[in-house]
Each structure stands twice: as C-alpha cells, then as structure tokens.
Amino acid sequence: MIHVKTRDLVLPGQLIAEGKYKTRDGAFREGENIFSSVVGLADVREETISVIPLGGQYIPRVGDMVIGVVIDDHRAGWIVDIKSTYTATLLVSDFLRQKVDLFKEDISKILTIGDVVAVEVRSVDERMDILLEGGRPGLGRIKSGKMIEISPMKVPRVLGKKGSMFDVIQNGTGCKLMVGRNGRIMVWGKDEGMINNAVEAIFTIEREAHTSGLTDRIRLMLEKMKSEVN
C-alpha cells in the first residue's frame, strides 16, 4: 500500500508505503514499512520508491557528470572544485585518457587555475578521495557560455522525467544546456535575451521544485517571454 503520491512533500520518518517495494535514495525500510529519511518529494515509480531531497550538499557518485573549476595544480594534474564539501583530483592521464610524460609536458597548457571543465566522477573511496576523468564526448574544458549554480538537490527537476523539463527549456529558448549533477549548469545561446530567459526559467524551477504542474507552467512562461520580445 502506498500512502503518498509522486511529488508529495514528505518529512523524515514519515510512512510512505507498506509492502515489498524497492527503496532508493531518501527512503529506508523497517520490516514491511518504508519511511522517508529526508525532507523532500516522494518519487513513486512502479515497484521503486525514493525521495528527492529539497536541500543539502552535493555528494559525489561514480558516473556523475559534474562541472568543476580548477583551483590548484600539482605535478600530475589538478585540484578541482566540484561544489561539494570535498574537492576532487583530476590527473592529466585521466583527463586526456592517454599516458603523458610529465617530465616533458607543460600541464598549464592543458588546464590552468580558473578553467571550467566538464568531467565525470571516476571513483570515490571511503575517505571521500575523489578522482575525476574526461576524454569522452561532451567532456573537457569549457571555453564559453554562462555558468549558473542551483541546489544539487533540484537538478532532477531541471532535467524532468525522461528529460522533459530540459527539453522545454532548450526548445523554448533556443539555448543549449549542460546540467551537472553538482548543481552547476552551463547555458549557451546566440541571443542574450534568450539566455536570460533560460536562466530565469531554471531559477524558477529551483524555487518551485516542490510544486506540481511545473513543466507546463515553465512552458507557458517561456512562451510568454518569447511573445513579449517579438
């Protein structure tokens, strides 16, 4: 038996469901009962129950695509701020996905302090030592665009189910987005006004992530903004 609907606001310790459902992030089981472990939005999908937190720091997970900022370097690579309690290490060989002779290579020609990068979390150990990697399509140094930051907990709402909200923003503004799991988002567009519309839409989603019917409201908002410009 399920006691809540998808997108219902739930509190820590609140009973969400009873039965043999699978639990994921934000939910835990005690016997036949499933409870919320955080303040967040219930997410009920077939036989799986989870809760999307409404606040909190980004916790790195293997496979996450994140947008980082290089804050220091060392002989074998760089230290990267990933908008978390923990910084991460990006080795030259992992960034380029090839062996590099560090005695001959000037790594400052590859990346330098202040550079923005799109990378994946390669590994996280029990001490929260985090390794990053690049070298795949869509990853690498980001040379242009507007970067904004939102709560990492609101990223699923910016993406939407099967990318629905993501598509609404891109189609409604003509902009291209890159959404990092750590809450950093890059926006590219030919028109400054449309870039601003995309940014406003994203911040609206962050503020109203707990409400229902948000995708339709954002679509209408962008349509209105576009008509006012035309």
What features would you highlight for this structure?
230 residues, alpha+beta, OB fold (Dihydrolipoamide Acetyltransferase, E2P), Ribosomal Protein S8, Chain: A, domain 1, 3 domains, 5-stranded mixed β-barrel
Outline the fold blueprint.
Elements: E1 9-10, E2 15-18, E3 22-23, E4 27-30, E5 33-36, E6 40-45, E7 48-53, E8 65-74, E9 77-81, E10 88-91, H1 92-96, E11 116-124, E12 130-133, E13 140-142, E14 146-149, H2 155-159, H3 164-173, E15 176-179, E16 184-188, H4 192-207, H5 214-229
Parallel strand pairs: 3-7, 10-12
Antiparallel strand pairs: 1-6, 2-5, 4-5, 6-7, 8-9, 8-11, 9-10, 11-12, 11-13, 14-16, 15-16
Helix pairs in contact: 3-4, 3-5, 4-5
Describe this entry's structure for a reader:
The structure is a single chain. The chain has 230 residues and is of the alpha+beta class. The chain folds into three domains: 9-53, OB fold (Dihydrolipoamide Acetyltransferase, E2P) (Beta Barrel); 65-142, Nucleic acid-binding proteins (OB fold (Dihydrolipoamide Acetyltransferase, E2P)), CATH 2.40.50.140; 146-229, K Homology domain, type 1 (Ribosomal Protein S8, Chain: A, domain 1, 2-Layer Sandwich). Helices cover 23% and strands 33% of the residues. The chain has helices at 92-96, 155-159, 164-173, 192-207, 214-229, and strands at residues 9-10, 15-18, 22-23, 27-30, 33-36, 40-45, 48-53, 65-74, 77-81, 88-91, 116-124, 130-133, 140-142, 146-149, 176-179, 184-188. The strands form four sheets. It has a five-stranded mixed barrel with strand order 8-9-10-12-11. A four-stranded mixed sheet has the order 1-6-7-3, with no helix packed on it. Strand 11 and strand 12 (130-133) form a beta hairpin. Helix 3 (164-173) runs antiparallel to helix 4 (192-207) and helix 3 (164-173) packs parallel to helix 5 (214-229). It is flat. The chain starts with 8 loop residues before the first strand and ends with a helix.
